[in-house]
Structure formats: structure tokens, C-alpha cells
Amino acid sequence: MPSLLGHPFRVFLYTCKALALGHVVATYGYSCGYGWGPSMLPTFLTRDEWFVTDRSCRRGRGVRVGDCVVYAIPVEAREEGIKRVVGLPGDYVLLNSPGVGSGSMIQVPKGHCYIVGDNLPWSRDSRDFGPLPMGLIKGKVVAKVSMNGWWPPSWFSRVESGLHPLSDTSKP
């Protein structure tokens, strides 16, 4: 009677291949992660929300103003956060929150981006630690996962840019 598992070396080889493929997909493809905190309200809930991250956008590749990114927090070792990009290299951004402080602006340096949370009073972001080096960007958030209902495709909702062009009716 032949063995159900086959030759032990072949099983070991297939296991190694599967682990290597999983590593490549999670590092360079898409990954799922958990997020919590009030800094991105109302875009994301404060708890019990999962995100799908496109890891091909690491180090700022393909990131545009308005995108939500996962980044390594520069002032916290081994911690990651999610914030919205409001300025790329060469852009001028407001240094403080609107209506707070002097209203001075800075130009985002080359190789950096400026990130802020959607809930400004509860967000620790570039207003606190300065422009973020692009090398700290781990990926772009492309979807959020809410396990509501029984149909798995309905669990995913796309994360939009959050920035909308001004309509012609808003001009004075």
C-alpha cells in the first residue's frame, strides 16, 4: 500500500515552497491587519476593524495625496499606524491644525510625505513628528473588512481617497 504523504523529503519540500510563497505574498502583495484608535474617525472605526494593505506601494511607490497608508511610527519602535497622505515632496502644507497656531506652512522635503489623521484632535501625526520618510511607508490601505452578513464578498469595502474636487457650484 503506498504512503498517503509520499516521500518525507517531498512533503518537506512542498511545505517549504508553500511557506516561501506565503511570505512573498504577505511581504510584496496584499496583507490583512488589525487597526484601532480614534485618529482616523470617521473613515475607520475605533476598534474591531481589519484592513487590506497593498504592500506593492511600500516606500511610497504609487502613493498619492489622499491615500491612507500604513507606516512605521517613527517615535514608537515596532509600531505601525494608519494615516492619510496630505503632502508629497515639493508640496506646501499647513504646519498646524486649521485655526490653531500661527498658520505657517512648510514645504515637504524630497523623499518625505506629510501625513495626518482624519480626526485631527486625536491624531499623532506629522504635525507632531514632522514629515515622514517615504522609507517608513509599509503599504497603502485599499479595503476595510467588516464581517457583517454571511456573504464573504460583502465583507470588503473599498477605501476611497477622501479628497474630492470642488464642484463648480461652490464658486462664488
Characteristics:
two-stranded antiparallel sheet, globular, alpha+beta, 172 residues, 8-stranded antiparallel sheet, 2 helices
Per DSSP, what share of the residues sits in E-state strands of 2 or more residues?
A: 25-35%
Based on Cα principal axes, name the global outline: globular
Distance between the termini: 85 Å
Biggest sheet descriptor: 8 strands, antiparallel
What's the order of the H and E elements?
HEEEEEEEHEEE
Mean pLDDT: 85
* Count of separate DSSP helical elements: 2
Helix coverage percent: 10-25%
Query: What's the count of strands?
Result: 10
Specify the oligomeric state: single chain
Rg computed from alpha carbons, rounded to a whole number of angstroms: 21 Å
Structural class: alpha+beta
- Runs in which pLDDT lies below 50 for 5 or more consecutive residues are none
Brief write-up:
This protein is of the alpha+beta class and 172 residues long. The chain contains 2 helices and 10 strands; from the N terminus they run H-E-E-E-E-E-E-E-H-E-E-E.
